[in-house]
Batch of 4 targets.
Target 1
Amino acid sequence: MNHSRRTKVVSAIAGAASFALLAAGCSSGGTGSSSSTSSSGPVTLTVTTFGSMGLDGLYKSYEAAHPGITIKANNIDTGGNARTDAFTKIAAGSGLADVLAVEEGWLGAIQNVSDQFNNLKDYGADAIKDRWVPWKLAQATDKSGRIIGYGTDIGPMGLCYNSKLLKAAGLPSDRAEVATLLGGTSATWDKYFAVGKDYQKKTGKAWFDQSGFIWNSMVNQLPEGYYTSAGKLNVTENPELKVRWTQLAAANAAGLSAKQTQWDWNKGKSFTDGKFATFMCPGWMLGVVQGQVKTAGGDAAGATAGWDFADVFPGGAANWGGSFLTVPKQSKHPKEAAALAAWLTDKDQEVAAFKAQGPFPSVVAAQTDPSLAAATGVSAFFNSAPVSTILSKRAEGVKAQVKGPDDSTIQDQVFGPSAIALDQGKSGTQTWNDAMKLLDQLVVNK
Amino acid sequence: MTSTLGQEARTSPPASRPDRRASLTFKNKLGRLDVKYSPYLYVAPFFVLFAVVGLFPLVYTFVVSLNDWNLLSGPGEWVGFGNFAKELHDELFWNSLFNTISIFLLSSVPQIIAATFIAVVLDQNLRARTFWRMGVLIPYVVTPVAVALIFSNMFSPDGGLVNHLLALVGLDPIAWKLDTLPSHLAIASMVNFRWTGYNALILLAAMQAVPRDLYESAELDGAGSVRRFFSITLPSIRPTMIFVILTSTIGGLQIFTEPRLYDAASVTGGGAHRQFQTTVLYLWEMAFQRQNFGRAAAIAWILFLIIVMFGVLNFLISRRIASADTRITSRQAKRRLEAARADTAKTDAVKTDTR
């Protein structure tokens, strides 16, 4: 074939350009992997969190204090989705962030593969391990004594209530009065449901949003939940669970449930429509309530939505949830990632996270920090409630429950559908039997 | 004439240039190899890609299904066909299969009927024809995630558009996300929204290949438009119809995105009571939430075999319909051929007689 000279020149240039592109593409991968040993080059750390952990505002100050480190943060909407995301990436062997937030509900499953997470003792965990509440540190330590996570928050439970609705029903609406109304330090679930029946009679409206969260709170309160302290499955063998399920069924029969879809709440409108008067509130849920009111177009800065936070919880001290920051072995910069995780869980940062979105610190010094008491952010939304003081009081006497490997499956997929069925009017016995059947299918005979 | 030219070429080989003949032979060899084997090289990239991306995962999934494989901790012990046996006895698996087939029937049947009629309409002499034809494809272009989120909002029981419209007409609100059949209808409507236009365009292309003279002659013979549709259009687009039915069967049995996002807040994919959990969604739950890869792989293979079965069934039915036609036409053609042969034999006999 006879090409013109011009064609030959053009094809030569094209060939050289594509070769150069190919070479550049291949070589950039090379420099990326070589920087894992030396931290002299710029490092980009990825962080994956979920829900409202309050960490988003802290990354900028870390980047400013550590030039050369860029933080790429990703926040997943719910803990359930974060769990699916984390599990998928652990199985795939790649894709996990350098710093990964893990919730205590699925920490049990993570502990089963704790060898895929860095032992933070190699990166200075021993020096800082006394900063946390002892049971929090114990949760993050695996069977061979490796510390795989730094605790961020714990979830001491208080009661969120809508003061406007209670006032309209003729019930006391002041924080202290509500606490006394429900029994104060000797509050029980029976008293809570009794007050609820009273409210329902007076207004015809529901008392709580849906049975699922009530059930979760009841279970988390028990000294032994779905698993014994030794880690054995404990659902059918645990009489306390059946007792509480019957209580919940009776409350449903009295019309106390607003039958909401959890994590949807009609796009937040149920918080502003007055569909229910009380809500289960561990520390991290405070930010969620504020967020839902904001989504519904309500006042998320001031207190006109009417939500308040009382220092009382039916059944006494309870802890629901709490997270950890882990450094997976997939990370190419474990040293920098561990340093970032340690910084994010330090006293000042946990206080800042609390001020931003309300998750209660697990670091002892942060819990007793006086600046925690200042009414900012979340506090202002809850009618200037002394949120931190209340949560500190609610954290007293909390004992961590042992969470087994299938804990979140049991909570979400065994009892979840039955709680929804309770809301829809099915009987307590029927729904309990359905749950036991699902337990067999999903957990026992899996 | 060509033979003499060739002979000339052969009788004048440059005997004084043996090198040229030697290199010519080598080039000839290459040329022959090129003609024989380069077609295989040209199609090789596709098959290499298929082997890597399609065949290998298929075989590997089968290997995984024979083991007790945990998502996080990796392969366990060999269980042979234990996972398959467990799945065939799994109530939740059969529930998902029921949901899948229900949604498939609710979506594919109206979809193909609607696509056929839309294609007929588009085939007519419309004004701004290209606009209508492109417009019908827009639902396909919209990403399925966005469609699912919008439809999920529309079918929301509390303030959704559909329940609002029902209330306007005076009907009770339907629990679109809780009851089984309404949720299937809602998901089927999402699938139909996306695929009707696409199928309509494929059928339109087939319809446009039908020669117009057939329609004209039928019209002259007095056939109405409905008669023309059933007797000319449908039989002529039969192969394309088979293709459309087959692809929508395969797609319909694998629906995942729509049920997954229909109730985004639900932790269990497919509704709390698995009202609209399709088989692929159940597979995903088994793999990534219940962390049981072995059983999930078994579900994948069982679904694969079911789809193959549906495909073969489809093929046999459509072949039978098609061959019934050809049998008739070939019978008629045979008779006509006999008659024509008899005619020519007669005329030949007459010719030979007169010669």
Note: The CA atoms of residues 414 and 439 of chain A lie 6 Å apart.
Target 2
Amino acid sequence: MKKVKIFLGIGVIIIFLIFSVVYYMYNKPATEVKNEEAFMVISANELVEKFNTDPNTMTSKLLDKIIEVTGKVSIIEDNNGSQIVILGNGVKCEVADLDISLKKDQLVTIKGIYSGFDDMFNELSLTRCVIQ
Amino acid sequence: MKIKILSSLFLVLAVYFSSSAQEKLITRTAKVTFFSSTAMEDFDAENNQVASILMVSDHRVAFNVLLKSFKFDKALMEEHFNEKYVNSDKYPSAKFKGVIPSEVDLKTANTYTNIDVKGEMIFHGVTKPLTVKADIVVNEDKTIVFNSSFKLNLEEYKVEIPSLVKDKIAEDVKVVIVANYK
């Protein structure tokens, strides 16, 4: 009788644990770029050049990876809460908290998640970016 | 005399170039949000870096939406969306190209509501004709605001939802576009 009770107790605990893990995994928040280490550190123009020479390899290698890009700010587009900073020859970074002191031609390092090539303006896209 | 011809030619060219420069309005920060609502679960995802071009002269509008740039609250949802539902490795972007009817004067300040924008949608490897309703505001400073909201049937674009999560994902997702062209 005692044994049955112990087994039942263990069973309940295991089920509870499984549920908590599943619940945690299901509700896990999306990646925070800030505290993660970059998979690649590169200059904006070098990244564009590498992409242009071999787009397929670069895409499969970098997709969903965090990369740290340094380059000159060529365009800043600020539009009702969504901000885009273009570095060098075409690395587009979506920055959540734009540093208002950021200026055109300023050299800056931005970390974000590589999310592909935008073939409308021919730009490589980074999301969830943070300015270093 | 020669100078007069040259200067008038220069003037014509200057006017031509300055006007053609304004014919094309762009934005990289258009926002596309989609909403899925079922009895089991509501969720939405937002993409704040949609590229779009509005050709003022010939009334064409085009959007390019990178699917990887959609942000969800939950990491697992984002992963499933990209890997299982829209296969964003294979079909990285969704595109909409449409024509704004000629009764909309894109060069004079005015507000238009419920305009039919006829075009086509390319999503998940499927191209389909699609007409969306749009509100268009032409501002005094020649900037244009384009808002649209429409339903997208996932089945029509061959997005398969596994039966296990069928109750959690709506068959028709609501898509909202907000674009501020400069």
Note: Residues 2-27 of chain A form the longest helix (26 residues).
Target 3
Amino acid sequence: MLAVVAVVAVTIATISIGALGVRVARSTSDFFVAARTVPPMWNASAISGEYLSAASFLGVAGLVMKYGVDMLWYPVGYAAGYLVLLLLVAAPLRRFGAYTIPDFAEGRLASLRVRRVACAIVLLIGWFYLLPQMKGAGVTLSVLIGTPYWVGVVVVGGVITTNVALGGMRGITFVQAFQYWIKVTAISVPALFLLAHWQHDEMPDVLAETPPVFAVDTDVAVDTGVRIVVDDPVLVEVDGTVDGRRRDPSDGPLRLTPGPHEVAADTVLGFPAGAPTPHADSVTASDGAEWGRPFGPITADEDHPLYFTYSLILATFLGTMGLPHILVRFYTNPDGRAARQTTVIVLALLGAFYVFPALYGVLGRLYTPDLLLTGRTDAVVLVLPERVVPGLPGELLGALVAAGAFAAFLSTASGLLVLVAGALSQDVLGSTSVGGFRRAAAIGGSVALLLGLAVEPFDINRLVGWAFAIAASSFCPLLVLGIWWRGLSARGARAGLLVGGGAASGAILSTMFGLAPGGWIGSMLGQPAAWTVPLAFAVMVVVSRRTPSSIPPDVGHTMLTLHTPEHLGLARPVAP
Amino acid sequence: MVTTAGAEPSPPPTPRRRVTVTSPHTEAAQRARPQRRRRDELADQTELGDVLIGSLIRAQLGLALRVLAVFVVLLGGLPLLFALVPAAGRFEIGGLPVAWLLLGLATFPLLVLLGLVYARQAERNEREFAELVER
């Protein structure tokens, strides 16, 4: 119950700080005011705070637990995206002074039509990225207080929507910076306890050539029906329904034979210590050795794991710069030089965070193998500390990770919804009033909430990876070519955004709705960045070369603004 | 690196005729002065100005791509290596699997290091450019 208290506290703190901050920070020019007083360290904390979402806090550990070392490309890519952003985008973009990506598109290409396409893509990416946050909320609440999945989605979706609509969480640097430190504390402190426990436990080998086993006698509560696969026969106490037959403990243990079995909702399975863990149908079976080596369990789920890996790398490396809620934060840097310094600090802060989630995934194999049975590996970060550390300390650690998880999706989801609502109100509803923004926030939040109800079957990181793929296939070429190539024309940019963003989202939607075939085509649709990114670049370049008349006439001045240091006074930023 | 190649304006033609000599502080002298400041060349986007800014952009892009190449060579080859040589993926040092150490631990300081090197060099490029422009 301590965890519930912690979650409520984080939520109330977020709402009230947001509400207090309304008067402090309301308009874009307030960011500029902040710019003069925010040192790079704070700014970097704020960027990292908004960036570390449910995917990083919960999802990475869950995927590592399921698939092993191959999934470490997610945190590597999430961090490395900032290196690419530093190298190609950070300083020029700050110098340009654009506040959002649609602002950049309009300012760089002098075209409202490009702006509109960019806005549509902001909405697409924003909603896609909101889905995994909703899923994180649903999973977290159901782990904490046993509510059905939809309750968490509705509660958190409702809180965020109301909060943003009322004007809270308006990108206040202080709040977001604080969120980073909550998250890094919440993931690292319990991890150190877990490591100490593992050492005390005589360091069991997670890479042994045996399937995961229950370390102690374990009662596994199955809340939603699941189809499990048994590899080695196992004796279980059943209180509930297995394979359509009701049993209770007085019937004595049931021998589960190798093969699939249906476990109905609200069933409790009691496993003796040392029993090999059956796994959910959705989880690929693997012993420790297979799980721990590159191209392990993933080879069973992906027809072309090497393609999958490289496509994922490309999406995360190039997608970070195109996430709509990231660019806004760079605006709070006083100049291009500070933008670079900030980004380097972000790399350090993210690195400090990302060494921990994998640890939960690894130790989860040893101490919470039941998650492989229920298939809810996304919950490993939440469950593990309390399971491993006994008594009050364990409860406190559990409360800490719960608070961190809530901080993760509250901050990211609020940041995203502010941008979605901004794009909706300004470019779709055509309103710049506060009322328009509120209506837009209500619409944007409701859409995210409804879609969030439908994504329970997808891994959090799968969803986030898709948002990155769309960003990498649309905004990455727009930013990179816009900054480094004079020849980018408005028509070229628009065509590239439409083709790249369209191809990537079409591929992803076809996968989500189960329309994609198997084999090469299925792999390419499921992880499209490897072909949609080059496609988007190619379309932008080819169309630009054929439409030189739509290259903006003042591109020379734009280049001066983007690339010369501010003190030379050559710049003409689009905003003050 | 900001190069100075092509940065010097060609000397004005010197026809054999009388020239007016004026005090350098009068307006006439300012108008007649053949060598304009490079800052103005940039601001007015003359051919020379375009050469100057072009050299800065090329220098910065080249630097970015070089740093990126280092990163891609160090890390980008790993999946291919693991796929082609499965033994490499199972390699252990002191009982710890190298693949896990590389991806879970070593990458992050490498990113910071590359970021630092880049930021320093990018600022140096900008300083050289500023000196060139303001000289």
Note: The helical segments of chain B are 27-32, 38-43, 47-76, 78-84, 86-90, 98-134.
Target 4
Amino acid sequence: MAKKNKNVPKAQGRHSSNGQGWRDPQLHIPSSSQRTYTIVDHRLEKPSFTIRQIRKGDEIRYEVTGDLNAPVPAIRESKYLDKKQCLEIYRWMLLNRKMETALENLYKQGKVVGGVYFGLGQEACSCTSAYALHKDDWLGPMIRNQGSLLVRGFSARDIMMQYMAKAGSPTKGRDASSHFGDIERRNVVAPISTLGDLIPVLAGVALGARLQGRNIAVMTYIGDGGQSTGVTYEGLNFAAVQDLGLVLFVENNLWGYSTPADMQIRVKDLAERAIAYGIPGVIVDGTDACQIYDAAHEACERARRGEGPTLIEAKMMRMKGHAIHDAAEYVPKPLFEYWRKRDPIARFENYLVSVKKWLTPQENEKLIAGVDRELEADRDFAVASPMPEPESAAGGVYCDSSCHEIKPKYGVPKVRVAKSGIATPRQAAVHLR
Amino acid sequence: MPQLTYLEAIRQGIWEEMERDPAVFCIGEDIGIYGGAFKVTEGFIDHFGPERVIDTPIAESAIVGAAFGASLTGMRPVAEFQFMDFIGCAFNQIVNMVAKAHYRWGAPAPLVIRGPSGGNVHGGPFHSQNPEAWFVHAPGLKVVCPASAYDAKGLIKAAIRDNNPVIFFEHKYLYRRIKEEVPVEDYVVPLGRARVAREGRDVSIITYAAMVHVALEAADMLAKEGTELEVVDLRTLSPLDREAIAQTVRKTNKVILLHEDVRTGGIAGEIAAIINEEAFDDLDGPIVRITAQDSPVPFSPPQEEYFLPKLSDVVREARRLKAY
């Protein structure tokens, strides 16, 4: 495979080097210099456990073996984050968690329609990853990445109204939970319930942007459970072969509903899959906000330079069940103990208050109180907002000419100046008569 | 006015739209240097460049997903399926991701999914299907099945300009077998409107795609015995032209529904229900369905002949209905 010649000017902007206003295909040779057979691991500890089904008397149960007594490592210093950014990230994580606690309470008060999905223990991944995105980048959140929606500019009340099926929800009551998006301002693609389907879509967003002369970062997530689907493979392979700026966070939280990762994959680290796609793979501690940010930032920068996708495996654990109805009793208790000590917010709080001393205990209390106040206001607003009128279910199945004006978001694609002509037909090659 | 085949008309339609609108691009398997398995995109990559004529890996879910993603940034992708039989591989993306997008979260999906469908070419079970009914059944999609070269060009242009996802079924039997005068200038045929391919007063046949030509042949035969068939070409299956369906039934009072798709769950059932709703009192006889049998498409030519609706079926049923 040809190696990218770093001396050739990049023609990926609106100004190409050949003066014809379109990109020379010679400059778009996939870069195999990014290919890696080693997976970079940023973690300061490498926990290794096995979860197996064993027979215990009459029952089959899961059992965990491994070193569950290892001490909690320090937060790894970030290469990029400054104090202001760290405090913002901390606040986002607090907002993420407290919003979900509020949702749980609303559920128990009977105000939520359907179930609630939690990202407890995963807030660092959701919030910090999205924090690395720029305005023109895109996000495709999954069900447990509600924190990323907050970072991207949605509010807690938006998410609460989704769960309560209110008329003022981002989908006007038509869909639940995190199934909403925004193509105009916040650049968020709404997920669907089936897993992996966001991956080719986000790749396509990057493709569309590139056709308009921009390399952007597009970020989405997939779990240890979801990554088994065929569409995950198809989407990631497509992004890899087209060098699209897909930053894929593989959130290995050890459980796909009730099935442990050990029963879903044979590899030790999901980041190893990057080798199969020909893209860089990175492992981070999913409970360490600094590691997540650094990996996300570097991957997004690669993406914006047109260097293609990155697979980032964030290791953590899902600290509640699959959804609110699931008590997760199948999870061996020692695992909960192990990961509780690694709570991402507690770790980061300790880092900010005790290690970096960027926050005094009083400032911390004030910050937390501020988050509580914001949430209370959002909660009250959401609870008081009306349910939709029944008739509002009608309409909107099609986009008619008056509801949307569709035009390229990043600018009109530069195309070769057309000379009008009709292609002359040549000999057909298909042998169906 | 030049004579173009059905395939050439489609090619010209896509070409013109790509020249007219820089947001339009093609994506699919082997559409670039090879020009597509059926050569629909022959010459495109040389003229428009590889950025706008993208060859993909064999990954239909990724093709549809990526086309949808690109459409979210304001592009208008034309995604080719090498054979529409393979649309099953992208079914989830089409019906769950794309079809529901505008209703659920207000995101229009201005993409076209196009490719060859239909049988009578000895293609066997996986190269001869008529999958249109599956997609008529998904709210949010539009489904188009042209029967003439003129309509093929006008409809592909309309489909590309439509803000909604359009599944465009090109009948492969017609690709090179029909040739007619097609205007060189820009014109569109609106989606959602049927056309009367032949006027008549005795019995109506409502049909689409390759079967339109079978119906016209039957009409010629029956005209000799004094039976005038009215042939209505639906052109768009979703949304259906309810008014055109009702109008022809009001005119002749007798109707045959003809399609190459299999019987059960085929769109004839839907049209029969529409006739019941719109023009029950105008019926002077039962609604007759002529369809393929309920089986996969067999491969061996004598078996495929048995499987497909035949000219003799149409003639027989038209005579029977006329006399009812």
Note: Residues 3-181 of chain B form a domain with the Rossmann fold fold (CATH 3.40.50.970).
